[in-house]
Amino acid sequence: MGAKILIVEESPEMIDILLDILPENMKKQVATNGIAALALLRSGNDLPDLILLDIKVPVIDGFELCRRIKEINKLKEIPVIFISSPNESLDKVKAFDTGAVDYITKPFNREEVLARIETHLELYRSRRIIKELYSETIQGIMGAMNDMLLIANPEVSKYSNSIKFYSEKIMEELGMSNVWDLKLACVFSGLGMLSENVKKAEMKHIDNISNPIEDIELSIEKAYKSLKLSKDIINKIPRFQAVSKIIENARFSLEEEYIDIPIEDMESEILKGHILRIVIFYFYKFEEGENYIHILNEMRISEREYYSLEIIEALNKVQNNLINSEISNIKIKELRPKMILVENLYCPQGRLMLKSGSELSEQMIMLIRNFESLEDKKIDIMKG
Length: 384
Hints:
Layout: E1 4-8, H1 12-21, E2 27-31, H2 34-43, E3 50-54, H3 62-70, E4 80-84, H4 92-97, E5 102-105, H5 110-152, H6 154-173, H7 180-193, H8 196-206, H9 212-234, H10 241-250, H11 268-287, H12 292-300, H13 309-324, E6 327-331, E7 340-341, E8 345-346, E9 352-354, H14 362-369, E10 378-382
Parallel strand pairs: 1-2, 1-3, 3-4, 4-5
Antiparallel strand pairs: 6-10, 7-10, 8-9
């Protein structure tokens, strides 16, 4: 299938010329002013592969329209080629600063226009392929890590999956879609929990503690400290610096300069690290049977450490949605990714496989289905 091109041009004559130049196998869309183009781009899921944009388009000029396009997540990767007239002074620096990749001038030279379009379409396709491969690699790493944690320690696997689930849902509530690095940080955070040194140190302290409240606080502190090992491991993986920064930021309380500022003004790694820290705290308190309203109120009024109220409110909505979710009783063979177990799952020999609260992945489901005797067994789940 040919590429899809959006032409943003006021002149019917110029539109006809461009439509004639573009090959028949290309899908074409036309908008005659900036507002119409922006509305078209925002409303549609079938986005163009390239935009031809006249700098003198009415209502919103080309420079401003290009700037707005580049501010919208789903649109910012689409290449924009400016169109200018020979008697117009095209500020090339301004054009590139607003996000354009190239420009063409009237009257059009067919071969030049096609060459420039094909060049930038090929670059766009290449970037998308690389991005998809990277995304598949990330998903593969997370799946492999989940499997390793599940085999090594179901408790740690539940910890890792639970904080990933809550962190991802919080980001959704906050309207933030780029969460791959936070999800990886959540998965890798479980690695530090597997350290024998951490386990022995924890048991040594717990043996001397009789107060269950102190037990919870110690477990939370242990989880924060174990993040150092997780960070050291992920530092050895190329191009995962963002993940490492998130884990590092989760180890410590939010710095004073970030207190009481809107989350949109926080650096991405600071915000995601703070979300991870909040979720770890919440996980341990909630696992010990504390009422979630009490936990959230504790964070709101905490004098020991500051927690972002915006993130707490997002977590509150996530938990309310979970409580209101419909619980279904389905057969093992009907399990699907993203479903959440409401009860523990045991293998036929009676060994614990997954704890309640675990979010299912493709790899987990494949592992469960290896036990044929479980296929017709029914279990309570919630849809994630």
